[in-house]
């Protein structure tokens, strides 16, 4: 039998101890701020009913949902005619009832409806779990990745949007990664579609517009034409591509374009509130940027939309995003519950910190502070007693498991980045003193067993 070469699916990764330590550093930084800002943790299953997820992310999003085949002989009950026709959409509904979650927001909406009688509104939750998308893997885009979400449901106050801007600013300031927080409002986009008389094509318009950064103005216009948006409408929307100046200047221009749209003017009013209050409170290192071409492709956003981009390094993809959704829970039967939420992209944030050498000294691939050298069974047994005492005092310690050459044990400590090595031979046991070697300076000191905790 041929030996199988080990591999993992495209778009997934293994993480070394160093990488996991760095990921935990980011997660712990985000989690600390989530708690400070008043969010409580929840978790939801890795997979949901397929019906829970489909129809919530738009046509493009639905295609990227990983479906799970029914257990057993999943083809047995499929209509033969459908198999002959090769109609994958109709076949899927018969062979798959579950799917891996695509994001954390829709499962959260399901959670809120299912547990509405146990929840105190406004409900502020955070959730840090993996999600899966059948996307084309590329730098910063994976098929399995973590999202770190915070949402508030049960309040339509715009103070929540202001607070989320502060939350982004606080987290990225602590990570020492200055960012731009791009913001727009779906009501403005709806208003623009209204004045251009393309309301029926709002989704086509926003999906194309959302690609402006990636493919440029001409390609976006070409995509709009391809979706049947008229030249006249594109002409009306053209000023959108070239607006500049501070937010007050852009709002003034926008008010002229949207003069006949009540919805559009309402969107401007909401954004003005966020900008003015953010200006009043101040930001530490982030910059709030009005981006009128920001659309975010997800269908459920109805108000403010956010996207976060790093101001340093060459990584240009968004490292966070979110927005206001006025009736996401309505699809599960709980009407008129407004919510707003943001997400931190853990993997992309990692790439930014790595590219710009912003990780603190987490180079250790171990969390062991001290290693006892193994001189034999008797000495190792005595060392284990001390190890127990040290661990009880919160010091991460271990005994090298094998009675082997000193050079090999020292090499292990060196490669693992262990700072202190403890020598406990027959003489040391007799005198109740250990020899502690500093692996950085090479200095050796004798320390009484009773003083080991202080010495380490």
Automatic annotation (TrEMBL):
Keyword Ribosomal protein: no
UniProt xrefs under CDD domains: HisRS-like_core, HisRS_anticodon
InterPro entries with a match to the protein in the record: aa-tRNA-synth_II, aa-tRNA-synth_II/BPL/LPL, Anticodon-bd, Anticodon-bd_dom_sf, His-tRNA-ligase, HisRS-like_core, HisRS/HisZ, HisRS_anticodon
Domain Aminoacyl-transfer RNA synthetases class-II family profile: 1-401
Compartment(s) of residence: Cytoplasm
Chief location category: cytoplasm
Pfam families associated with the record: HGTP_anticodon, tRNA-synt_His
Catalytic activity: tRNA(His) + L-histidine + ATP = L-histidyl-tRNA(His) + AMP + diphosphate + H(+)
Molecular function (Gene Ontology), one example: histidine-tRNA ligase activity
Top-level taxon in the UniProt lineage: Bacteria
Record's keyword terms, sorted: Aminoacyl-tRNA synthetase, ATP-binding, Cytoplasm, Ligase, Nucleotide-binding, Protein biosynthesis
This enzyme's EC code(s): 6.1.1.21
Family annotation (NCBIfam families): hisS
Family: Belongs to the class-II aminoacyl-tRNA synthetase family.
Subunit field text: Homodimer.
Protein name (Swiss-Prot/TrEMBL): Histidine--tRNA ligase
Organism per entry: Faecalibacter bovis
Lineage of producing organism: Bacteria, Pseudomonadati, Bacteroidota, Flavobacteriia, Flavobacteriales
Gene name of the encoded protein: hisS
């Amino acid at each position: 039998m041929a030996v199988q070469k080990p591999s993992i699916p495209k778009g997934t990764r293994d993480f070394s101890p160093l990488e996991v330590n760095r990921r935990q550093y980011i997660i712990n930084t985000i989690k600390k701020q989530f708690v400070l800002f008043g969010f409580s943790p929840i978790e939801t299953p890795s997979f949901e009913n397929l019906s829970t997820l489909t129809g919530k992310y738009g046509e493009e999003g639905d295609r990227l949902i990983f479906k799970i085949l029914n257990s057993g002989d999943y083809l047995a009950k499929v209509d033969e005619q459908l198999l002959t026709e090769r109609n994958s959409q109709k076949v899927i509904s018969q062979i798959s009832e579950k799917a891996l979650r695509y994001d954390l927001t829709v499962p959260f909406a399901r959670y809120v409806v299912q547990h509405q009688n146990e929840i105190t509104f406004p409900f502020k939750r955070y959730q840090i779990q993996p999600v899966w998308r059948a996307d084309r893997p590329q730098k910063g885009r994976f098929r399995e990745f973590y999202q770190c979400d915070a949402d508030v449901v049960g309040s339509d106050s715009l103070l929540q949007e202001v607070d989320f801007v502060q939350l982004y600013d606080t987290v990225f300031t602590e990570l020492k990664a200055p960012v731009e927080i791009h913001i727009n409002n779906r009501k403005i986009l709806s208003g623009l579609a209204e004045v251009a008389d393309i309301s029926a094509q709002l989704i086509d318009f926003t999906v194309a517009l959302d690609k402006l950064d990636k493919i440029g103005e001409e390609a976006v216009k070409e995509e709009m034409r391809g979706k049947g948006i008229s030249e006249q409408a594109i002409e009306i929307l053209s000023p959108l591509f070239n607006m500049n100046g501070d937010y007050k200047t852009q709002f003034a221009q926008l008010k002229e374009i949207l003069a006949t749209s009540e919805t559009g003017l309402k969107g401007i009013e909401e954004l003005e509130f966020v900008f003015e209050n953010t200006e009043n409170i101040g930001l530490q290192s982030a910059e709030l940027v009005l981006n009128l071409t920001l659309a975010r492709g997800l269908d459920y956003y109805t108000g403010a939309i956010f996207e976060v981009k790093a101001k340093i390094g060459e990584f240009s993809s968004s490292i966070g995003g979110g927005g206001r959704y006025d009736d996401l829970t309505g699809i599960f039967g709980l009407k008129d519950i407004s919510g707003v939420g943001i997400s931190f992209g853990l993997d992309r944030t990692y790439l930014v910190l790595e590219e710009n050498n912003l990780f603190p000294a987490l180079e250790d691939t171990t969390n062991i502070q001290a290693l006892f050298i193994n001189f034999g069974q008797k000495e190792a047994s005595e060392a284990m007693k001390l190890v127990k005492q040290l661990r009880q005092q919160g010091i991460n310690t271990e005994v090298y498991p094998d009675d082997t050459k000193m050079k090999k044990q020292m090499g292990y400590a060196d490669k693992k980045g262990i700072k202190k090595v403890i020598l406990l031979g027959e003489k040391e046991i007799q005198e109740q003193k250990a020899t502690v070697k500093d692996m950085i300076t090479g200095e050796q000191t004798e320390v009484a067993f009773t003083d080991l905790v202080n010495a380490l």
